[in-house]
Amino acid sequence: xxxxxxxxxxxxxxxxxxxxxxxxxxxxxxxxxxxxxxxxxxxxxxxxxxxxxxxxxxxxxxxxxxxxxxxxxxxxxxxxxxxxxxxxxxxxxxxxxxxxxxxxxxxxxxxxxxxxxxxxxxxxxxxxxxxxxxxxxxxxxxxxxxxxxxx
Length: 151
What we know:
The protein is α+β, with helices and mostly antiparallel strands. Helix content is 45%, strand content 28%. It is built from two helices and five strands, in the order H-E-E-E-E-E-H. A five-stranded antiparallel sheet has the order 3-2-1-4-5, with helices on one face.
């Protein structure tokens, strides 16, 4: 039964660390796309929404998705999907995308906002760090309490 108090916080920590990795990875990808200086005209192929929540007392969160396609300077056709784009972009619209070069092209249709994006990434990583610290503190406290009860 004591393993439960280590397994659950361990799983929460693993999830928080993976989320932090994903946030930092996406931040670095966006930064590299904006800093590359490469732009292209992309066509919005599809726009759709997804919804989450809404059961019981939870609120509904709607996320807007866009699917874009463009051709790089070296002739490579790239199609990518991006969340939280502008609601005014509809299927068939032409937008400017920032992208990296090479075999693994990273692209974004979001306008460059490196300070805002870095602040958001830092805030999320800080929050996830607090979650990890809380889980570690919980496991240490449980270990200490458990060892004093068994003496």
